[in-house]
Model the fold of this input.
Amino acid sequence: MHKYKQGTLLAWEEVQKHSRYVKEQAMRQFIRLFPQVKDRTCSTLTWGDETEYLLIRLNHEEQRAYLTCNNGKVISDVKRYQAENSSRNTDTIGCCWTPEFTAHIVESTPLKPFGGTSFGLEFVQRNLKFRREQINSVLVGDDVTEDICISLSYFPRYWCRDSIIPSKYSSQSTPTLVDSLHIQDFMTPLPRCRAVSENIPKRNGFCPSIHIPVFRDESTDSNIAVSLMDGERVPEARPWFIPATGPEQAAGVACLQLTFQCSDFSEARLLHDQLAPLCPIMIALSAATPICKGYLMDWDCRYNILSGCFDYRTAAERGIEPLKDSPFIIPKSPWSTVNGYVSRENVTFNDVQYPYDDDIYKEFLTAEGIDTCFARHMARLFVGDPLFVMEQNLHQTESSSNHLQNIVGTRWPSVKLKMPEEDDEKAGWRVEFRPMGIQLTDFENTAYLIFMVLLTRAVLKLKLDFVMPLSKVDSNMDKASARDASRQQTFAFRAEPSAGRIKTTAQWIRDYVLEHPEYKQDSIVSGKICYDLVKLCSDIQQETVEPEHLDHLVQ
Done:
């Protein structure tokens, strides 16, 4: 979970000017902090999830669905509701809500971590239902319009002109959709979100983009017509591909993540390495995103879109142009697989050479109790620049950790090793598992969460070993987003991971579109199809419709 803070952003030119200074300050903060937390232990298994939801308005009269970009207001209303109804709260864990990068997504987490007796599937599912009931209690509706909050990975017509209600119009019962929309209409109005959106293209010298293969049906036009927002940066058009450009287009997806608190530093390193090869497998199994910008994709997952649109490497760092100002060629996007195993016994499997800042690496080696493997892992995070700096936080003492959190927080590997928080003695070494797609129902999301928790316990108890050369993990990741990958692709693995007998959420969504009476075999997800799909998903989540023919939803 991100901790959003208000403040004044430095202009990108100032961030670049102070980049080395900020990294050196972050380095000193780590050297001071690591000896204090390296031996911290936790005796009890605890964990928590981050479950994200889309805010949508259904217009039953028009039979259209629209995004409502007002997560700040919704969260304020939920907090007010929580305060007014605290005495009637029957859930022993509780929940809290935070805004996500785009203004139509909210993130929920447990107020207290799961663990001990609060572990079983029924207990966790009850908490997820409690969250859904809580946020739905503050959403409005009448016979014509209905505001809903659903666990859907991607709004089918995200970034299309006819499908967004900017926050300034969201309070109107039947708002007029304006013809002119700007990128900022999609964004959560917080400095960090704006900085990432604006500074990635400035650092690159171009806006990162990706061309997504369209699903080719009988009547699909090779020239993909995607409506443009005012201020949108347009990539070069390619036949048979859907263009996506900039972080704000990729960030419109919801996901399911979970964080494990480990017993100590050694266990956290082990778990990080064992979970890394599982990421492509879990991406394929939890696939839930077959539609992008109103078109059926030939992919089923969100991950490649995020990787391409959050890629802040310059052309030189990508190896496209000669190295000049950039000292390193960086082999992959910062939103990708892990850049290396962190346990000493697994170093030989790091066959993808990811660069690291040698000067900072040598300084890290001076930290009390650090070994070369972990020092190199940390130095890899210092390749590149900080993406933003708050003016009031530029000059810090070594007793602060803000610059360190800034550096680490703008690298997005599929598995993230997290240091304990200095000011929270209960916090230990943690591992965040980030690749899974959000599912339609609380039962499904609970099942994925519990499965991953049980898997980590099995890894530690039975000493299972999934580690393989990192190049094979990267190769698996390339396959994981493909259409119906869980049944059609062959993954390198130490055991057979899936029989692929059950449809993924992505495959179910794709089949629903293909079988819809208004679908014209042209790969386009129309406004009516979008409405019917979103309404069905909402009805399934509210348990007002039986999930007929959905084997993967049957409890």
About this structure: Residues 174-179 have pLDDT under 50 and may be disordered. Residues 442-462 form the longest helix (21 residues).
